[in-house]
Amino acid sequence: MNIRVLLLFLIVAGCQNRPSAPLVKPSSGNINTVTVVIPDLLWESEVGDAVRSAFAYPAEGLPQQEPFFDLKQMPPEVFTGFARSSRSILWVGFGDEVIIRVDKNAYASPQQMAVLSAPDTTTLVEMILSQSPPIIAAFKKGEVFERQRRTQKSPLKHNALQQRFGIDLTLPSAYQVFKEGEKTVWFQREIRKGHVNVLVYELPRKTKLNFDQPLQDIIKIRDSVGKAFVPGRLSGGHLITEAIYEPYVYTTSFDDVAAIETRGTWEVKGDFMAGPFLQYLLDDKENNRYLVMEGFVFAPSVAKRDYVFETEAIMRSLTQSKKP
Asked: What own/partner pairs with CB < 8 Å and gap ≥ 24 does 44-51 have?
């Protein structure tokens, strides 16, 4: 009995002497929301105006104005407890010296906290405006990862893309294969006032496409695919690129594959249906093709930013193997 007591004592003592690992709680918060830690007086000044201008400007390609990020402001004195678990945090204030840094997982995980501090208003405003692009890129990367992490909890099980294109996308289980063609797959999920769509297709490399100035070619490709594969509700109607607002076009990449990113609005020819779209066209030289992925949303009278972002996270989940 004494030996058992001695062993128990040694085990307890060993546990007490062992350095404890810091407990980091999981981060939380709505998708595309940034907690801005800034004094109330600064928030109502030109400093706050600079933050709103840099981080809550209208998101591109939407039919109505919606902010790029939703900003949740709180003064430093209440930035305690659960408030510190926010996934994306922007700390702005005055200090004796200029400070520009991004802390990872300071209070929760995954978490990114950008800290901007300066001794005067002019310098602080300039810092906010000049440093916002890399901070936004870091925040957005974290939000894409979070959206994908949530999708992984209940993904759609399918092999339609692997069979046709040798790729895979991770979609939420709420989606279903809506329509299939020889070189096209259309996924859709219904929402309360419409539907969210992901369209994947491939084009031969002989397709006319000027990568340096691709907009007109992109529009022709979209409209021809829409006519062939995405009909409207009325006879003769089909998906086209809205002509009134010119789409935004950028170069991007998926791993080492060059791609064109296009954001804009679509409409149905001869009907009153319209909404935003996001398209990625990949220059898939290895498989001698252009691979196209597009998300488009029909959600009249409701906000659409997060639906488009959902399709972006889906398309950014692309994994590619050799085409079977």
From this structure: 45/121, 46/121, 46/125, 47/92, 47/121, 47/124, 47/125, 47/128, 48/73, 50/124, 50/125, 50/128, 50/129, 51/90, 51/92, 51/128
Please count the other Cβ atoms lying within 10 Å of the Cβ belonging to residue 133.
10
- The answer to whether residues 78 and 127 belong to one domain is yes
Q: What is the pLDDT of residues 191-217, one digit of tens each?
A: 988 999 999 999 999 999 999 999 999
Domain that holds residue 92: 25-152
Is the per-residue pLDDT at 144 higher than 60? yes
Same domain assignment for residues 227 and 293: yes
Q: How far apart are CA 65 and CA 263, in angstroms?
A: 14
Q: Give 21-25 contacts, CB < 8 A, sequence gap 24+.
A: 24/105, 24/107, 24/108, 24/109, 25/85, 25/107, 25/108, 25/109
Q: Is 260 a domain residue?
A: yes
What is the rounded CA–CA span in Å between residue 195 and residue 233? 14
How far from chain centre, in Å, is Cα 268? 26
Q: How far apart are CA 276 and CA 308, in angstroms?
A: 7
Of 148, 185, 179, the C-alpha closest to 165 is 185
Say what the pLDDT of residue 167 is: 96
Q: How many residues does the chain have?
A: 324
Q: How far apart are CA 40 and CA 73, in angstroms?
A: 8
Banded pLDDT at 11 (limits 50, 70, 90): very low
